[in-house]
Amino acid sequence: MSLIFGPHPKVEPKTADDGGVVIQHVRAFVFDDNDQEKKSGGGADCHKQAKGHWIVDSDIANPMSVYEQYRASRTSWGIDAMGSIIVEVQLSNGMVGVGISIGGDAACYIVEKHLSRFVKGQDPSNVELIWDQCWRATMNYGRKGIAVQALSALDLAIWDALGHLRGLPVYKLLGGKTKERMPVYATTARPDYAKEMGFHGAKFPLPYGPANGQEGMRKNIELVKKWRDAVGPDYPLMIDCYMSLTVPYTIELARRCEPYNVKWIEEMLPPDEYQGYAQLKKIITSTMLTTGEHEYTRWGFRQLLENKCCDVLQPDITWCGGMTEARRIVALASAYDIPVIPHGSSVYSYHLQICFPSCPMAEFLVMSPRADKIVSYFGKLFKDEPLPENGYVALSDDKPGFGVTLNREELSLKRPYPTD
Ligand SMILES: [Mg+2]
């Protein structure tokens, strides 16, 4: 027996002619060319960096490290192949909201040719309705990856526009502050500099994986020891493994890290290895285990929670389904007493996190090529991205939306699939 109701009447937004404000235009952009995107500091794709940058051209274990020819640089296998996407929604009163993700031309195609039909003419308040229609309509080819990244950028653009329309920061639309400022930890090649810059901890990439054998394992441990010695005994130190390890390798790594007080080991296994994560969580008690950077939607995060895969979830707000989905993920995780410390995401993460008590700390990637100074996470994409100072990020009380302005003057953007 099931509950069967008749269809709900269609939601009919007031039209612009009736004095209602509706979404009139949806536009999806990429950078005009690859070099410009790299010179602009990567935009929404933190891996779109010039040669020599620590995040692409240093030893960082990754899923392709098993192939020797792709080991030296992550750009050699195309970690930056997709590039940024910038989505604008324009309201009938002229206000514009901006959301971003990765996915390049392919994501632009999804936004303009498919998703825009659920957005144009809609009341920007109806974020749940728009999200649900986009989700259901892409189910036959989406569910994870690029389709959800496209939806994320669109959803964030709508939240930004809604903030402008209401004259409020997004965090005030979501529920207001639970803390005055966000403590921030650094992801960096230089934990010593991160400590000097005032960050509340430092996470560095693991250089070697199983394909580097016992010598690689020994070098990994030497690096952990080096950074522990450099930052002193109590400074929080974390290790990012970027989906590169196996269950037995992680067990040995955790065991050999025991003397060095590692706060957490991150994303050790490929994202679909839910059973492997669950197995590690049962075995490893000397450090916390975290993951979720490459997981999508509440259904994906439910898998991690139900299987007890980790101690902390790390969704990327610009990838996991946008703000509409991220707040559901936080709510779901809170029922399991699992904190959420999002991956990167800058302002999109800060506006979410400041609202929820179960989001204790933000990540900031130190994106200067030598990890020696704080620069904007999104490069030149925005004119006014708030940056951490002395280990904290504060948000403006009165800047509407996400509080950032697209840097139209310095960027050359193109719209590969214009639909209006
Ligand atoms: Mg990571």
From TrEMBL:
Domain of life per record: Eukaryota
UniProt-listed Pfam families: MR_MLE_C, MR_MLE_N
GO biological-process terms attached to the record: carbohydrate catabolic process
Entry coiled-coil feature ranges: none
UniProt keyword annotations, A-Z: Magnesium, Metal-binding
Domain Mandelate racemase/muconate lactonizing enzyme C-terminal: 186-284
Keyword ATP-binding included in the entry's annotation: no
InterPro entries for this protein: Enolase_C-like, Mandelate_racemase_C, Mandelate_racemase_N_dom, RHMD-like
Name of this protein: Mandelate racemase/muconate lactonizing protein
